Amino acid sequence: MDATLSPELKSSLHSFQIDEISSYHTYTRLASISKNEANRALLKKIAQQEMIHYLIWKRYTQTDVKPDQSKVRFYYWISKLFGLTFGVKLMEKGEEKAQVDYRHHLEALPEIEQVLQEEEVHEKELLDMFDEESLRYAGSVVLGLNDALVELTGALAGLTLAFQNTRLIALAGLITGISASLSMAASEYLSTKAEGGEQNPNKSALYTGITYVITVLALIAPYFILRNYILCLVTTIAIAIVIIAFFNYYISIAKDLPFRKRFAEMSAISLGVAALSFFIGYLIRNTLGINI
Question: Are 91 and 75 in contact (CB under 8 A)?
Fold first, then answer.
């Protein structure tokens, strides 16, 4: 069939082949490291489907192609670091462009309709069935992250103008942050236990507490490194925005939620509280005449 293909169609088919064989090797590799038996079975099933698609295009080109190893490694490590659900759904987002390219050749390649249906429907159903602990406790992570960002960004803004000493601000912020993380973890434990759902109260508390502490350390870090307190505050706010962007991107991919609206809302709340706290710190310093 290769002789009957136009140069444009042949080039597209080779690209399709590379995408499908790369996805096959990625899913197969992810299946080999999955500890969850159900997830492993799903990954193997998706991998087999990708191989079938590869063989469909091979019938036209009559050639074999090698996988894009950089793509395989990228999604493998993304999945290792951030979870299978995020890694696999990120892959599917990347394959949306390939589906658009498929539609350009619907008339020339009748099998494309079948491939599109499987890519758009069947795989989505499979991916929605993924069961990962990190996503089951996403609510606890959100709680820890939101509270740490809002409370500590606001506290640091107020302390910055009140103390104007990076070491004192860092010390006060660290004590405030650690105390708040313990309080939040305890509250999450009691709340989860009272609800009596499927979530483990200990794990909910752990996810909340660890997320809070990591966020606290990230936000306070500039005050341990830099000397100018205004530069420290600006850097802390920048770090907060990066954390908000990263977390909301992760959730938007893993749980199919809108990114922009959630990012804008969370940023507005954190920055609004920081601005208000900064103003309160200014008033307190000038009203009480305290100079440290």
Answer: yes
Q: What is the pLDDT of residue 182?
A: 87
Give exposure, 154-171, as e/b (b: 16+ Cβ within 10 Å): bbbbbbbbbbebbeebbb
What does DSSP assign to residue 95? T
Same domain, yes or no: 16 and 97: yes
What is the average per-residue pLDDT within 39-53? 86
Write down which residue in 114, 131, 148 finishes a domain.
Answer: 131
Dihedral (Cα; 247, 249, 255, 258), 10-degree rounding: 120
- Render the burial of 122-152: b for 16+ CB within 10 Å, e for the rest: ebeebbeebebeebebbebbbbbbbbbbbbb
Residue 254 C-alpha from the chain's centroid: 7
Question: Which of 94, 112, 131 finishes a domain?
Answer: 131
| 163 and 51 assigned to the same domain | no
157 with 54, same domain? no
Give this prediction's pTM: 0.68
List the domain range (segments joined by +) for residue 150: 134-288
Q: How far apart are CA 151 and CA 178, in angstroms?
A: 12
Quick one: 177 and 126 in the same domain? no
